Amino acid sequence: MLRAVAWVQRGLFHPCAGLSAALKSSSGIDQKGILANRVAMVTGSTSGIGFAIAWRLAQDGAHMVVSSWKPQNVDRAVAALQGEGLSVTGTVCHVGKAEDWEWLVATALEHCGGVDFLVCNAGVNPLVGSTLGTSKQVWDKILNVNVKAPALLLSQLLPHMEKRGRGAVILVSSISAYIPHVELGAYNISKTALLGLMRTLAMELAPKPILMNCLVPGIIKTDFSKILHQNEAFWNLSKESQKVQRIGQPEDCAGLVSFLCSPDASYITGESIVVAGFSLRL
Ligand SMILES: NC(=O)c1ccc[n+]([C@@H]2O[C@H](COP(=O)([O-])OP(=O)(O)OC[C@H]3O[C@@H](n4cnc5c(N)ncnc54)[C@H](O)[C@@H]3O)[C@@H](O)[C@H]2O)c1
């Protein structure tokens, strides 16, 4: 199986040994798996949930566009996927910066031929504290990265996605949209807004071949959630409502995203699917 990697930097294009092959593999040659011949873009995909998703989609045959705001992390993620013989293009993108997501879209179009699946995973929470004590600066950061960036990135990408036929967008929300974590107010609100964004776009995009769904993770063991999963009192309390008696792993989220991108999910849109070891309906 031909697999390839390219590492693309803004203003400085590094055609490493695999680039021409990356173009070939993104156009479908030698790719195998349920997502073969498709291109998937995951934001914030150099660690945690985003990386697990990128890994899984690549294992399932997609050519991956991985990105994050730190070049060294992109480098590491690309090398890890490449080490498994998977097909990947990596570039730096801070999703809160318009010039970065414009570059991300241009890179995917030029070097991968387009995008079929967009997973808006990058998210921030710079604040632990009172909601009404949140500064304008913090509100701006949280809403820019967590809510506006997915909408604006998709608005750039959508015309190109439609042209390629069936596509899927998955927004990564959070269980805190349903059960707000105390002291994470602005973050909770941003993740609730993502549910609204998904539902609205599912309606607006219904005539197009693009499916819109939300992944809603519970507590998943990553650097991002350290503040929660390393807090013994919090975890003991969580276990009481948690049905599956273990903390979630990033990989627990990845299979669902692969399914939502697969032809088996072609009649599913407008859904928010909780991956939390419990159900809000129980
Ligand atoms: N871990 C959890 O318990 C949990 C629960 C619910 C929702 N989530 C959501 O899942 C998503 C991923 O979180 P994670 O736990 O994997 O965190 P993580 O810290 O392990 O990974 C976050 C990734 O996003 C990247 N990133 C951060 N800010 C960025 C920016 N401005 N532009 C581009 N990339 C950026 C980081 O470099 C990293 O690759 C987030 O949206 C988070 O809100 C996480």
TrEMBL record:
Family per record: Belongs to the short-chain dehydrogenases/reductases (SDR) family.
Protein name: LOW QUALITY PROTEIN: dehydrogenase/reductase SDR family member 2, mitochondrial-like
Domain of life: Eukaryota
Gene coding for it: LOC101400666
InterPro entries (UniProt xref): NAD(P)-bd_dom_sf, Sc_DH/Rdtase_CS, SDR_fam
Listed SUPFAM superfamilies: NAD(P)-binding Rossmann-fold domains (SSF51735)
Species classification: Eukaryota, Metazoa, Chordata, Craniata, Vertebrata
UniProt keywords, alphabetically: Oxidoreductase
Coiled coil: none
